[in-house]
Amino acid sequence: MRAAAPRPCTLVVCRGCCCGNRRKHPGTDHAWQLERLRAGAAEHGFLIRTTDCLGPCDQANVIVVQPSTTGRRSGGRAVWVGFAMDDDCTDDLLSWAHAGGPGIAEPPATLALQFIRPPHEARSRARR
């Protein structure tokens, strides 16, 4: 049996009810952002996935940066980024994914300011 190929860093881009919604965020070109992310992924070898809704709608647009196989083995875990709407944030996401993402490279300092708790973690902490 052949071993599975190592998975690269993956950006999961929310495009549900609030994220990617022109009515909610009219000043953001959501289609252009997704095009830039896809072009960067094609050029630098990481992956882009879209999903309907990740949950924290009050922090839209939300993008989850998942570590590569190597990054996960090095201790990297998925990182949730909120308010990911402007070109600077998109540039930071592209550069971090290109550098290897969680477990491989440190995130840009300005991007780290946009890290949010995943919905399940925020709910479990509220119950304590």
Q: What is Rg?
A: 15 Å
CATH domain class: Alpha Beta
Gap between N and C termini: 45 Å
Tell me what the CATH architecture is.
3-Layer(aba) Sandwich
Please give the share of residues in helix. Answer: 25-40%
| CATH fold field value | Glutaredoxin
Q: What general form does the structure show?
A: globular
Could you tell me the mean pLDDT? 89
Question: Largest beta sheet, briefly?
Answer: 5 strands, mixed
Give the tally of structural domains.
Answer: 1
Query: Which structural category do the helix and sheet elements fall into?
Result: alpha+beta
Oligomer: single chain
The run of helices and strands is: EHEEHEHHEH
Low-confidence stretches: none
Describe this entry's structure for a reader:
The protein has 128 residues and is α+β, with helices and mostly antiparallel strands. The protein has a single domain (10-127), classed as Glutaredoxin (3-Layer(aba) Sandwich). The chain has 5 helices and 5 strands; from the N terminus they run E-H-E-E-H-E-H-H-E-H. It has helices spanning 30-44, 69-73, 87-99, 109-112, 119-127; strands at residues 10-14, 47-51, 63-66, 79-81, 115-116. Strands 2-1-3-4-5 form a 5-stranded mixed sheet, covered by helices on one side. Helix 1 links the parallel strand 1 (10-14) and strand 2. Helix 1 packs parallel to helix 3. The N and C termini lie far apart (45 Å). The mean pLDDT is 89.
